[in-house]
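User: I'll paste a sequence; please echo it back and then give the predicted structure.

Assistant: Echoing your sequence first, then the prediction.
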Amino acid sequence: MSSQEFVIDVRGLTKRFGDKTVVDHFDLAVPKGTIYGFLGPNGSGKTTTIRMVCGLLKPDAGEGTCLGFDVLTQSREIKTNVGYMTQRFSLYEDLSIAENLEFIARLYQLPKRRRRVREALADLGLSERARQLAGTLSGGWKQRLALAACMIHSPSLLLLDEPTAGVDPKARRDFWDTIRRFADDGVTTLVSTHYMDEAVQCDRIAYIAYGKKLLDAPTKDIPAQVGLSGYSIYADDLSEAQRRLKGAPGVDVLARFGAFMHACGRDKPALSRAVDRVRGLPGAVVKEIEPGLEEAFIYLMAGVEDNFNGASA
């Protein structure tokens, strides 16, 4: 694919705060119409990278384009043409839903503002609440309002920074249905998250940890690329099973999944020998499984040194 077909095409993006390198030579290429997941733990540099991409923060090093505009010299043009939804609700709580959208429409100097506000209200299912004060909305409805504000100027790129934090599961599902609808209309979305159930909604995922990209691939290909084998384990005393497997040769990932435990590793013979330790436990049921995204990311994180010391990024 040529660079002209990428909505975001950046190389070597680097940002330092004092002696801390928050983003370290980061490359990212996002095709048009893609829902691109941007994953990583808190403090990994996701927000800083998004701010550099959308023109809110100037990189210390690197180059590239967003929507065809230079990320170093054309930040104003980028900011005008993207929709950016922040982690925290940032609209006016003492204004109504409609008043907030009217204000955003004025900021973008949109023609036929009243019509654009009506369309935004209808598109996100907000028409019946148009006069309700934003401060009285639940987390899910605030999320809808924030998304309506992001889309009112019809951007071709959405940058969503942890957009579903603090909302209930149904609101998260509704949100993702809306994002998929926008993608079908050609809107490209870069969304940062640390929820695995949201990651599977993405077409492609870039995984960042402590400023460095560990992986960038189609979502469906990630578990195979990491190359883990795995077993699901049940026992009457699962804590004892965990004790026997923890630190055993061949066990790279050991995690509880409800009433079961998953033991995974890249050395399948060694993993199999380790799992033999729990087969004789009372009630033990051991089944071979195909590890998924969550196991893959746990494995990736296990080998990453935290050079950021837990600071927010």
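The mean pLDDT is 89. The chain is about 30% helix and 30% strand.
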